[in-house]
Amino acid sequence: MKLQILSIALFTSIVFYSCDSSLIQSSNANNVIEQSITNKKWKITLLNSEKIQGDEKDFYLKLNSNSNQLEAKAGCNQLFGEFQIKENFISFSKIGSTKMYCGDTMAIENSFIAILSQTSKVVVIDSSKFILLTDDIVIAQFELVK
């Protein structure tokens, strides 16, 4: 009887430990990605396989980890909204923008807003570059502004 109780206690401890361990690993993955890409200014360099030519003052993304707010510009209008990082994925919500008409950059801006409207996988290439993927296809690339 004592052996059976000891076996149950040992089994329960192992189950709880392994559950806690996976939570820690998931939390660590969030922290690594969040620390790698937040509180920095990123130049948008690629959208849907199209290279973006232009200055980082007109094509950028900033993610504030304290408020989970995004600030961006994709050619013309200021963009703002919220983001959430969960494991290796980022989702954006409550996206808004100023409403100026800018003929030659509107297509790029609309493409960027469409990308922000979907949940994407985040892959940090190195400390100066990360990409967003949907269905294992690169939909956006960002390089650190120095």
Tell me about this structure:
The chain is an alpha+beta fold and 146 residues long. The chain is 32% helix and 41% strand. It has helices at 2-37, 106-116; strands at residues 41-47, 50-51, 59-64, 69-74, 78-86, 89-97, 120-126, 129-134, 137-144. It has an eight-stranded antiparallel beta barrel with strand order 1-3-4-5-6-7-8-9. A hairpin with a 2-residue loop joins strand 1 (41-47) and strand 2. The longest helix is centred in the N-terminal third of the chain and has 36 residues, at 2-37. Residues 5-26 have low confidence and may be disordered.
Key traits:
alpha+beta, 32% helix, globular
Helix count from the secondary structure assignment: 2
Strand tally is 9
- Strand arrangement within the widest β-sheet reads 1-3-4-5-6-7-8-9
What proportion of the residues form beta strands (DSSP E)? 35-45%
Radius of gyration: 20 Å
Provide the residue-averaged pLDDT.
85
The best one-word shape is globular
Largest sheet: 8 strands, antiparallel, barrel
Give the SSE order as H and E letters: HEEEEEEHEEE
Structural class: alpha+beta
- Oligomeric category: single chain
- Euclidean distance between termini CA atoms: 67 Å
The residue ranges in which pLDDT falls below 50 over 5 or more consecutive positions are 5-26
Helicity level:
25-40%
Outline the secondary-structure elements.
Layout lengths: L1 H36 L3 E7 L2 E2 L7 E6 L4 E6 L3 E9 L2 E9 L8 H11 L3 E7 L2 E6 L2 E8 L2
Antiparallel strand pairs: 1-2, 1-3, 1-9, 3-4, 4-5, 5-6, 6-7, 7-8, 8-9
